[in-house]
Sequence to fold (394 residues):
Amino acid sequence: MLEALNPPPKDKIIELMAQFRADPRDGKIDLGVGVYKDPEGRTPVMRAVRAAAHRVIEAETTKAYVGLAGDAAFNEAMTALVLGDALDPARTASVATPGGTGAIRIAAELIRNTAPEATVWLSDPTWPNHPAILSYLKIPQTSYRYFDATTGEVDFDAMMADLAGVQRGDVVLLHGCCHNPTGANLSPVQWQAVADLLLEKGATAWIDIAYQGFGDGLDADAYGTRLLARQLPELLIAASCSKNFGVYRERAGILMAISGKGADTGVVQGNLNSLNRVNYSFPPDHGARLVSTVLHSDDLRAEWAEELEAVRTSMLGLRTQLAEELRRLTNSDRYDFIARHRGMFSRLGLSPEAVAKLREEHGIYMVGDSRINIAGLNQHSVPVLARAIASLDG
Fold:
């Protein structure tokens, strides 16, 4: 059997990480891998999370399984964090998952099981694991235009023109905030237009919100998700704790399913539990318990919110610095969009040849489509990157 296996497709980001590690040059810059880094290049453990870990260990008396849906305190805290005053417990089912990716996978299986004829619509571009998971599960998919590489902004007219082709029962996947890989977000007015279209079409919205708190703040980043939760009859939400709590390796995520008129929330919850059961039996608990401990403790929650705000403003500062440096060096506003983008990522609109030149001549590593991780920079490396980009036009 095993001799019949073929090599899997190579992951471009993993390959890029290996190339970066093998590069002997001093001053090389890694803008590829999608994790937050502090100015020293570390992915730190948040103070509030470290304190929560001590409390969890001191209070823990068993390593027995939690329920199929995960720890109820975690689910309660996370649904409240994401949905805020749009939360309707009577309509909301939820399960803890291994990270946001686990939530995407369970949501995809739910779609396949309940609406096998539905087409899932993905933004072009989107996070590569979205189409990969759908393809693996043989779920029909198509794309809608989203990003204008010339302006660095959302191409909203093209997006809405494409979504006009959505059929009743289809599913539209939207990034809740800090769009990956472009960094370009919908405005409140645009979110409302999307909500109106989905309601008219009878389509289901599916939100992937992996960066809440990294853009404009915890509540502002959840604006579109909460709008859809209030206005649409049903909604799927996959949320991750990897970034805003820094618990990447703990794999803490959650899938929420908001049901509408005529749906039995208990039946929805049972189906989510069953999908957890056949995938990994019980979801991991340690990371989820760290998150719930932070969110249910007034002192830790306040410290976490302060830390998260510092992370957010640091990235905004780097964005502004890079945009201003490029404006000065290129004597143009071509890259001003970088300051308007939000979250860890921006797509610069460079050609694959330019990306390769930056890597080969300057030791600057980014994904081939010119997506950069802003958090891979610091105040000292921003001018280095800006000069290298400006030299491309020389």
